[in-house]
């Protein structure tokens, strides 16, 4: 394995998160790191400042907001094809000591691991369910429609795997907020599907890796903290519809037959209604926060 590790992230006016990302990265691995910032149109100057202040950081402008998966693909394409592993992470990740080295050790234990993900904590210290089952049409629809109004419904419970023992294991998919990917596996499925602008691209990646014979391995001895949603929180009117559109695309791609059309129509209608309700609720919440 090379003594240098490639780390890629997508920036879109990341604010202070990017500085914390780079500062804590220094304790995440004993390897030297090459960091590529795939910038989707930041206006806060943080990516430029990071590249100027750090010799190992390179700014790659994508030319516009091309989405998370598309930007990651652009950045990975810049990395030497001989690199065995690539770290993919959101810029609002804070690394714990040795977190990347733990993922690399696990990769040696799992030679068919295409992606490995850490235990992800919320800012308050609670564990985020970052290792999950791949949603089927029924379970996915049940979680999408009922997840917020009935969090303990059986579809959401099974999908989120929150009752599973915290242990190193192969799972359906891993949160794209932080992944170590084996380059051979990533390239074998042509990376992320860039049709997903935002959300569900990690579910799709994990599912396609599994279908191609690779494992998605959860490694809870590695820990990170994810601020989660700093971009989505600023623009719910854009991000929430994108989330629902991605959920529809994921299931429609896997249920393409003519006789499944009624199921697709029902799913599209249900998600459209849920999206409008979610945007209205988020808009009201933001207005209340700004008024206080």
What distance separates the N and C termini? Answer: 53 Å
Q: Residue ranges: pLDDT <50 for 5 or more in a row? A: none
Q: Rg to the nearest angstrom?
A: 19 Å
Number of strands: 12
State the major sheet. 10 strands, mixed
- The overall pLDDT, averaged over residues, is 86
* Proportion of residues in helical segments: 40-55%
β-strand amount: 15-25%
C-alpha geometry: globular
Q: Name the assembly state.
A: single chain
Count of DSSP-assigned helices: 11
Structural class: alpha/beta
Order of helices and strands: EHEHEHEEHEEEHHEEEHHEHHH
Structure description:
The structure is a single chain. The protein has 292 residues and is an alpha/beta fold. The chain contains 11 helices and 12 strands. The chain has helices at 16-25, 46-53, 68-77, 99-109, 137-146, 154-160, 183-188, 201-211, 230-234, 236-254, 261-291, and strands at 4-11, 32-39, 57-61, 85-89, 93-95, 113-121, 127-128, 131-132, 169-171, 173-174, 178-182, 215-226. The strands form 2 sheets. Strands 1, 2, 3, 4, 5, 6, 7, 9, 11 and 12 form a 10-stranded mixed β-sheet that branches. A hairpin with a 5-residue loop joins strand 6 and strand 7 (127-128). Helix 5 packs across helix 6 (154-160). The mean pLDDT is 86.
Helix/strand layout:
Layout: E1 4-11, H1 16-25, E2 32-39, H2 46-53, E3 57-61, H3 68-77, E4 85-89, E5 93-95, H4 99-109, E6 113-121, E7 127-128, E8 131-132, H5 137-146, H6 154-160, E9 169-171, E10 173-174, E11 178-182, H7 183-188, H8 201-211, E12 215-226, H9 230-234, H10 236-254, H11 261-291
Parallel strand pairs: 1-2, 1-4, 2-3, 6-12
Antiparallel strand pairs: 4-11, 5-12, 6-7, 6-11, 8-10, 9-12
Helix pairs in contact: 5-6, 10-11
């Amino acid at each position: 394995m090379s003594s240098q590790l490639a780390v890629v992230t997508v920036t879109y006016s990341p604010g202070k998160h990017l500085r914390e990302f780079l500062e804590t990265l220094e304790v995440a691995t004993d390897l030297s790191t090459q960091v590529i910032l795939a910038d989707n149109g930041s206006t806060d100057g943080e990516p430029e400042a990071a590249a100027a202040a750090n010799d190992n950081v390179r700014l790659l402008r994508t030319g516009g907001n091309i989405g998370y998966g598309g930007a990651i693909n652009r950045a990975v394409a810049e990395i030497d094809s001989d690199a065995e592993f690539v770290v993919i992470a959101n810029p609002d990740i804070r690394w714990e000591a040795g977190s990347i080295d733990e993922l690399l050790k696990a990769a040696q234990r799992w030679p068919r691991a295409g992606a490995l993900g850490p235990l992800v904590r919320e800012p308050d210290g609670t564990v985020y369910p970052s290792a999950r089952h791949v949603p089927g049409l029924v379970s996915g629809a049940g979680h999408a429609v009922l997840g917020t109004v009935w969090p303990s419904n059986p579809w959401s419970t099974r999908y989120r795997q929150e009752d599973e023992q915290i242990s190193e294991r192969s799972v359906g998919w891993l949160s794209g907020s932080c992944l170590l990917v084996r380059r051979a596996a990533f390239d074998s499925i042509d990376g992320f599907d860039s049709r997903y602008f935002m959300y569900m691209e990690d579910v799709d990646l994990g599912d396609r890796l599994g279908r191609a014979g690779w494992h998605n391995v959860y490694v809870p001895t590695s820990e990170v903290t994810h601020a989660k949603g700093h971009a989505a929180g600023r623009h719910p009117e854009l991000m929430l519809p994108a989330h629902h559109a991605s959920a529809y695309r994921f299931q429609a791609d896997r249920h393409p037959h003519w006789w499944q059309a009624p199921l697709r129509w029902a799913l599209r209608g249900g998600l459209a209604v849920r999206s409008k309700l979610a945007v209205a609720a988020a808009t009201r919440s933001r207005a209340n926060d700004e008024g206080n």
